[in-house]
């Protein structure tokens, strides 16, 4: 790992590049040990609420909820805030967050939107629901959705062993698909990045295979390499690229227009740049660097997406649009706390967080009532964002 890090730093010889990036490069690749925070502040309260909500579930489930609600017409001017928006804005202003919140409310599952800060200080563009963010670990849910379909088609099961696909990996005869999904495979990898953007899915997979270590210790340990292997398995089973599978199972069914892989971003994308990047050179260097870094996150974080598009995916996953309702119990397993499909799940409550460079995101929701809150920012910290998403949810969903 030390050698790889030294190689990474040697690429920063250019003085201006070093000044810009060294302050930004924190790259906490989603989750890690902070996963234990799940539902810390509101755990007991939400479980009790969920038990009560089961009595109302049939009525709630039959409510007309759009699979992909259109948030583009929601007012962004604070002077026009509704009471719900005012509560959300107070929380993000208190934390001094530059970003966007999309959330349901206690009275409606039609989302409200609150934004604050600039996506580009050079052009004076404010962050809005169409601004692109690297969604990092949120993407793990996409990989889980695709695998759910392949399992339903009988191409594999949660108990299928890794040695069926990668027999060369140590202990692969003891590692199941479920182990990979839940980070209990014993596979570890660090925050190690390529010196240049990886140019193909083959190189993405090979990079992850190179940096990972299979330990044979089958306890929870966060590693994005698990999802890189799952992406590779998807390719083997379908004969199509991982990107093509995301297109088939997620992008096309929902008609997403603001979802891109790191190597399909348009020129001059409407990206949320941190506000301290106040020169064109700084922004260009930053864009090149974030693309390089996320290229390592095969199947787990190489997508750029607007908050609106991600919200659509989240709602469509919960309400049976992307996954049939008769399979949702397997995708969102009930009972005590579990991690699978890129999120922490407990009694119908879901929570996930993501981080990369200066980008942070978190979502919190209830799969029974279809109440959800997502938060994407260009500043803060992983723990701050985790707590903020819970606070935002409870501010207007109770």
TrEMBL record:
Q: What single Pfam family name could you report for this chain, choosing any that match?
A: Beta-lactamase
Q: Where is the Beta-lactamase-related domain?
A: 96-344
Q: Which SUPFAM superfamilies match?
A: beta-lactamase/transpeptidase-like
List the biased-composition ranges (Polar residues).
53-74
Q: Does the keyword section mention Transmembrane helix?
A: yes
Q: Which domain of life is it from?
A: Bacteria
Residue ranges annotated as transmembrane are 20-39
Region Disordered, residue ranges:
53-83
Q: Does the keyword Cell wall biogenesis/degradation apply?
A: no
Give the UniProt keywords, A-Z.
Membrane, Transmembrane, Transmembrane helix
Q: Which PANTHER family match?
A: BETA-LACTAMASE-RELATED DOMAIN-CONTAINING PROTEIN (PTHR46825:SF9), D-ALANYL-D-ALANINE-CARBOXYPEPTIDASE/ENDOPEPTIDASE AMPH (PTHR46825)
This protein is called Beta-lactamase family protein
Query: What organism does the record attribute this protein to?
Result: Periweissella fabalis
């Amino acid at each position: 790992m030390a050698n790889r890090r030294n190689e990474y730093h040697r690429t920063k010889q250019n003085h201006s590049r070093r000044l810009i990036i060294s302050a930004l490069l924190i790259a906490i690749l989603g989750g890690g040990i902070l996963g234990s925070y799940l539902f810390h502040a509101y755990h007991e309260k939400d479980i009790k609420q969920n038990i009560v909500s089961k009595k109302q579930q049939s009525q709630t489930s039959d409510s007309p909820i759009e699979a992909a609600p259109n948030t583009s017409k929601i007012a962004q001017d604070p002077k026009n805030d509704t009471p719900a928006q005012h509560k959300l804005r107070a929380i993000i202003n208190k934390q001094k967050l530059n970003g966007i919140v999309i959330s349901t409310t206690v009275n409606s599952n039609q989302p409200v939107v609150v934004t604050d800060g600039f996506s580009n200080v050079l052009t004076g563009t404010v962050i809005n629901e169409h601004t692109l963010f690297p969604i990092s670990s949120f993407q793990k849910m996409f990989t889980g959705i695709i695998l759910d379909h392949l399992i339903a088609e009988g191409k594999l099961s949660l108990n299928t062993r890794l040695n069926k696909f990668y027999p060369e990996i140590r202990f692969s005869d003891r590692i199941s698909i479920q182990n990979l999904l839940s980070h209990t495979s014993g596979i570890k990898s660090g925050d190690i990045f390529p010196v240049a953007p990886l140019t193909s899915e083959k190189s993405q997979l090979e990079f992850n295979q190179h940096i990972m270590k299979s330990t044979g210790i089958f306890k929870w340990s966060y590693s994005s390499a698990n999802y890189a292997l799952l992406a590779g398995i998807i390719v083997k089973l379908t004969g199509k690229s991982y990107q093509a599978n995301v297109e088939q199972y997620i992008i096309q069914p929902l008609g997403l227009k603001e979802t891109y892989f790191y190597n399909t971003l348009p020129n001059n994308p409407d990206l949320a740049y941190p506000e301290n990047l106040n020169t064109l050179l700084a922004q260009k260097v930053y864009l090149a660097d974030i693309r390089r870094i996320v290229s390592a996150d095969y199947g787990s974080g190489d997508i750029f997406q607007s908050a609106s598009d991600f919200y659509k995916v989240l709602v469509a996953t919960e309400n049976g649009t992307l996954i049939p309702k008769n399979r949702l119990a397997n995708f969102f397993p009930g009972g005590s706390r579990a991690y699978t499909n890129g999120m922490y799940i407990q009694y119908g409550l879901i929570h996930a967080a993501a981080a990369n460079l200066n980008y942070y995101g978190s979502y919190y929701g209830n799969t029974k009532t279809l109440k959800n809150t997502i938060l994407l920012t260009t500043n803060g910290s992983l723990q701050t964002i985790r707590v903020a998403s819970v606070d935002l949810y409870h501010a207007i969903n109770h």
